[in-house]
Amino acid sequence: MDRRTQQPPASTAALTAGHTGWSTVAEPALGLRPLHLVDGPLGLVSPTFDERDTALLLPSGIALGATWDEDTVRAVATAQASEARRRGYDAVYAPNLNLARTGLSGRTFEMLSEDPHLAGVLGAAYVTGLQGQGVAAVPKHLVCNDTETARQRMSADIGETALREVYLRPFELAVRAGAWGLMAAYNRLNGTPCTAHAELLAIVKGEWGFDGVVVSDYFALQDTLGPALAGLDLEMPGPAIHFGDRLAEAVERGDVPRARLDDAVDRLLRLARRVGAVEGSERQVTAADAYVPPDQAEAALVDAAAASFVLARNEDDLLPLDPRTIRRLAVIGPNADRPCYQGATFGRIRPARDAPTPLQALRERFGPHCEIVHERGVDTTPAASLGAFRVTAPDGTPGVLLEHVRGGRTVLEEVRGDSAFIWFGEVPGAGPTAEPGVLRLTAVFTPDTGGEWTLGAGGSGTTVLSVDGRVLAERKAPAPQDVMGQVARAETSAARVELRAGEPVTVTVEMASGEGARVQALTVTCAPPARPGALERARRAAAEADAVVLVVGDELETSRESKDLDTSELPSSQTELIGAVSASNPRTAVVVNAGRPVHAPWADGVAAVVQGWFAGQGFGTALARVLAGDAEPGGRMPVTVPRADADRSTHGEHLDTDLRRDYDAAEPTGYRHLARTGTTARFPFGSGRGYTTWRFGDAGLHRDGARWAVRLDVTNTGRRPGREVVQVYVRAPGETDLRLAGFTGVRLDAGATAEAEVALDDRAWQRWAPEKHGWVAPPGPHEVLVGRSVEEIVQVLVHEP
Q: What structural domains and CATH numbers belong to the chain?
């Protein structure tokens, strides 16, 4: 007999909410241990956000999307799952299947693509990579969490057609791939919270046959009955607020059917059996041979980073650079020695060791053959964690002293290497975050240069920053409804202070936390004085070099959870730097280290452009390999870079006074909008050059069982091995735009030819028909377009399904 059926509602309902921020409730009567859950789009996030808890830092979602390669994405997910197994995790909140519909979302870097098919196919590969090691994938955020502005309250207002064809499609493909979990989003969908949206969850559980767990985003629930009746299964984080005891009471009152509670518990137990968390079960590992041991993981991430780089421009074949023919290489730019590996989210990853910067990696690869000169090119340096500078605790121990004071008594003190801290629910060793108290950071800071330094501090409560006992800045506690948003944005109040080189000062920050706090957080930052004249030094270095690698892009704070961008442009100082350097040396290759599509009006004035994304801890090493020609830039654009932000259908889009956003008014978005309006992109969706040349033979459409496939010969006509991506788009009768329907990668040696096959499923021909509430193939001839990008179509076939 199922032991669960013998339990009263109060006992089983306890399983519907987390126990802590990252674990579920155990139930010995059912043989159930806690499930250990972890955030993971960029790597395995420390459950206590502790910088000492390191993990692999993966290429970001947009970088993985740029690979257009299921095998590469699956390999990265397998490396992550292998690490998760070693650390005892059962489920990973990944991948992020929201769409980069505007290019300006604060979390664009986490998203795979602007296109639902590409995002869905690669997302499904991520799911199979994780779950092949018996670690549950929990794709997120269902659905339309495509903006960060007021994400916990905004409503994505969207019609049935676009919802089905576009925004739900990646999640559908993930479910078809067997995902064991899904995370419901914060936002509302047509006015109803996604966590309480019965029609949405009926599609997932009923129509798609999803048998896994639907978990809430953290603190997303607003009540008990709405989510419970809609079909949400697990409230996170713990301890319970709206589920647990309150759900049991609702069942006992008859407000929620017992069958609904049983369904939620059954789903949790099914997940537990899949990951070996129920007595007598074992972790369901189906790809044991693919397990990635620790000593092989870093190499896999370097390969993935190289596969993500998109060579968007390469005039006169500037790249690759031959280290043996260059006497002096200028490495310039603010991201050359301080690259950005990830965006700023709760899911920040600390790698086990410092990742090589582009400057370090280029010195290692090119240094033995030529002189390397370096200039940052901009006067200022972005603020970083105070812990990254020369600091000690008062007793001289390297790091900062962190003290937790409760009731006037210090209950915990420790020396930490960082100065950005977050705790959900519990501070290990100090007690619940709900208990009022003071968090005090003390650091003896010794500046390495004299001048005007900038210090900043902020947190989840009232925060005061002092230097040598003098108060420099104060920041009020955030409004109750925006605590999570302000913590996610890591907002600080800053002050400038004149310091002398080598003379230590004592920095003290105190954050007062009120009673009942769900989260405690503190961020302390530091930025060194500006160094005037950087642009002229960079101009001079470029003029005296044989070639220039100019690395520009984002800093950690550019792309941030809970905050969208206003523009896709680079900072004006970087745009000015690109113009000055390229004018001084026409042999300039610009590397864009950004997790988003970047406005690039300067692109026609430089010889080469490499889209380098946030490529994870392998970024620097992979970049040196690609620039030297040891590896090919294998990526293709997963997003569109238009010639102007105004070319996007979403330009000027905003929330109305009721925090609603009209999605339908902007549909279609991305490359489909540009195709519909006859507008060309600067860097089109699907474009990318590589280091060799290709020829496509005549394509044909063939039936492959119940499906159709496009087949054609592909020839590498260049002098190097390489990889081409064959892309197939479909234009249905009556449509003016086109939609990606399939793709495949072809790797060939120089001069070789092979047949490429692109499979097309039924959805290639189908469109959603609201009047029939189903999928139909519009009658008439469909155009099947074969090409190298959405704007480089080489053949058009006609098919009538």
A: 10-279 (3.20.20.300), 294-381+531-639 (3.40.50.1700), 384-527 (2.60.120.380), 692-799 (2.60.40.10)
